[in-house]
Design goal:
The chain is an alpha/beta fold. The chain has a domain of 152 residues: Ribonuclease Z/Hydroxyacylglutathione hydrolase-like (Metallo-beta-lactamase, Chain A). Helix content is 25%, strand content 33%. It contains eight helices and 17 strands. The strands form three sheets. Strands 1-2-3-4-5-6-7 form a seven-stranded mixed β-sheet. A hairpin with a 2-residue loop joins strand 1 and strand 2. The chain is globular. The protein binds zinc ion. Zinc ion binds next to loops. The site of zinc ion has 4 residues, from loops.
């Protein structure tokens, strides 16, 4: 039985969700096609079969938008043409594609007993996840015109300095990557922003929420409804205002509110 699985699901006209599973890990990408070209939102982990699965879905040329530069969103970048990324992610891209850093991250993420079983996949991730590629750096408000279909980039710093969400006003969808999901948002990782910044991003998404009904995240349940925004806002506000009660997981603390949690760096002064 293969250790790598892909699940492709058509979620609307000319729109697909491509999920990759590697035993303990899971990553979601989305392919959105217009009349002239298609945009692949994130390329997931660099696992075999992904590029073929995506390429078979459309005959339009495919460009890539990375919502941020974490390794599980940029893995297959080098197999595609143009790659769009936020300007603020340059440094993180360099870090996440440094072989020694990537190797340590994989070792931390994959429990020792599974590493031997996944050695081929880990080698593939290390080999493929590089900074090579035709990058174009973009900013908030960038509009992708795919041919009778427009996608709008919303800068939502927090999880990383240059985290982006993508708004499809025609279909009333928000692609939210690691900025909104049904489980929790990580603000304890290297190059995350302080909770104040994430709170501002979430308030901005709430202000835009009359333009979308469903949220398609990068991980966990897909899609989710927009009522999660208020829970993240309340959770982030409790951290910012100093009223949060913290739990602990691995090397981070987390504050919980309703169905969601937000992690912050351990040893902080809050
Ligand atoms: Zn991430």
């Amino acid at each position: 039985m293969s250790k790598v699985k892909h699940k492709v699901k058509k979620i609307g006209t000319d729109t697909w969700m491509i999920e990759q599973y590697l035993l303990t890990s899971e990553a979601g990408a989305y392919l959105v096609a217009g009349k002239e070209k298609a945009l692949l939102i994130d390329t997931g982990l660099a696992l075999p079969g992904f590029v073929e699965a995506v390429s078979g879905l459309t005959d339009k040329p495919i460009e890539v938008l990375c919502t941020h530069a974490h390794a599980d969103h940029i893995g297959a970048n080098r197999f595609f043409g143009k790659i769009y990324l936020a300007e603020e992610e340059r440094e993180l891209l360099a870090l996440q594609t440094t072989p020694a850093y990537l190797k340590k991250m994989l070792n931390d993420a994959i429990p020792a007993p599974l590493r031997f079983l996944l050695r081929k996949e880990m080698a593939g991730i290390l080999q493929n996840t590089t900074a090579a590629g035709n990058y174009e750096y973009i900013r908030d408000g960038h509009v992708f015109d795919l041919g009778e279909r427009q996608l709008e980039v919303i800068a939502t710093p927090g999880h990383t300095h240059g985290s982006l969400c993508v708004l499809d006003r025609q279909n009333r969808w928000l692609f939210s990557a690691d900025t909104v999901c049904d489980w929790g948002i990580l603000l304890h990782l290297e190059q995350a922003d302080p909770p104040e910044v994430y709170l501002e991003s979430m308030e901005r998404l709430r202000d835009l929420s009359a333009s979308f009904d469903e949220i398609w995240p990068g991980h966990h349940q897909k899609p989710i409804d927009k009522s999660f925004l208020d829970e993240y806002i309340n959770c982030a506000r409790s951290i910012v205002e100093g009223t949060a009660v913290y739990g602990r997981r691995q090397n981070a603390r987390y504050a919980k509110y309703g169905r969601v949690l937000i992690t912050v760096p351990d040893g902080g002064t809050r």
